[in-house]
Amino acid sequence: MLQIFQRRDVLKRILLVLVVAMIGGAMVITLVPTGVGSFGNRADVLARVGRQEITTAMVEQQLREIERLQQIPAALRGFYANTVFQQLLYERMLEEEARRLGIRVTEEEHAEFIKSRLPAVFAGDTFLGMDRYSAEVQSRFGMTVAEFEDRVRLGLLETKLRRLVTDGIGVTPEEIEQEFRRRNEKVKIEFVRISPAALESQIALTNEEIARHFEENRSSYQVPEKRSVRYVLLDREQIRNQVSPTETELRNYYNANLDQYRVENRVRVRHILFKTFGKTEAEIEEVHKKAEQVLRRARRGEDFAQLAREFSEDTTAPNGGDLGWILRGQTVPEFEQTAFTLPVGSISDLVRTQYGFHILKVEERETARTKSFEEVRDSIAATLREQQTRRRIEELAEKLAAAVRQSTRRPIEEIAAELGLRVQEVPPVGPGDPIGELGSDANLQNVIFRLRPGELSAPVAIERGHVVVTVKEILPAHQGTLDEVRERVTDELRKLRAVSLARARAEELARRAQAGEALSAAARALGLTAQTTEFFARNGYVEPLGNASQLAAAFQMKPGESSAPLSLGTDWVVFRVLERQEANPQELAAQRETLRNQLLEEKKTLAYEAFRSALEQRLRQQGKLEINQEALARLRVPAGG
User: Fold this and answer.
1) Among 10, 34, 168, 568, which residue is least crowded by beta carbons within 10 Å?
2) What is the C-alpha separation between 129 and 139, in angstroms, rounded?
């Protein structure tokens, strides 16, 4: 194709990521089972489209290219392989249809597209050579020229087919107005949320009910294997308490690290920011007036931090506008000049910067100096204590490991005696249970459940330090008795009853509200509380219920109407429409073009999806699309699966 630039040494295939990007997020193809008889002994052929084949080797090649950029988890390899296959299948269908319709990509079109995407390969209209071209493609796309050019060709071919299908599609003014009303009408509701979790405390269970639930679900209550453990622990905190740097060590560290304790001129500043970036002159004038009002309040003695929390548009607002310590050169010049000249405790005039108007208050100031030894003595002591603790733990951990290496069958008491440690014991624990004072370290859990009784583990690093464990006793997994699993049975039965109670309350509440009783009164009678939302649109977010799409029924109801019980996950909601707010026709003009473009794109996408589905069905009916389901099933199996 690039004869226009230079005779072609060119391209074939690109990474899946670029495929998806250029094809615009094409959907996954639904594969209808197809016989395998026509493939004979060709177990490597996954599919045929017309005269083209898709083989396992082609998919594996693409997977290797993906793996050059990112690791594919073993468990997801089958998914990746299937996705690559589906993309290859779509491409072959695309080429088959383009061939039928006589659609092709000319060399001129191909060249112009590449030129527009890789301007660095050209000086004006002059091609700078294959070496420059190959390097640019490799650098930007991580592929060969052949792969890149083939991907470009397929992308242009797909664009032509898409245009053929969608160019005649339009959007009527009526459709725009209907969508405008749909998106901009709002409702306000009164609602009651009924959560099973909140009702669990109301569930009283008898011993008979618990026993009956256990008997009915006995097989669900297995007691997992448990193991009792003995261990010796190198406790980091105990060792830290045993070390103490000497005065000489402290002073030597100070003298060796004086640079750490040099302080430049710095100030600690709070500020209130009123943003002006991107605003019109009229808007800036309003911002200025607001800033002056807040400045007057600050100078009258109102709490500066509270004013910052209330009015500042900076990310420091939640912290009362506190910027912490700043040095020269860290802020814009106008801000810096004020911060470094304003007396401590003073409040500045309005300071205008590129970000907006600032009000500054200087909290503290430090001049350049070197902190004295006494000022930093405590921090040095903490640093050295941590260093010495770490070294001591490393020494003891190595001795512990060496002791275990002598024999993993040594009595743990011997090792404890050698290192002056104490043997401790944990009663039987199951998988996932906390291991006494050792916590819930997953790595330690794995070690414990791999050990044989009496065998010593290597030292395991945990949050508290290093530990060597040995299994004292193994209690095999077994069918639990009611006494063993009573707490679990009770908890599960209570949750089930709470779910049923929540649904019953929701149904009763809805029945009473739909019969004309005020929702809030009906809620109180059932021990529930009604809340009211702000106005929200269909695509909005309703605090605290979530996305408004879950409440779509509210937009079909009249003010005063109450809903049926609505399931939101495990919770239930009953609501009443309080008010409707129709779309403001005066806002249509400002939204018309955006709505038109969005509706047009949606209609084109639907039309192209319908075309793709019809194309697949037609190719199957014509015998031009065959899938080797046995080979495809093997491809989808994860590594090691």
Assistant:
1) 168
2) 16
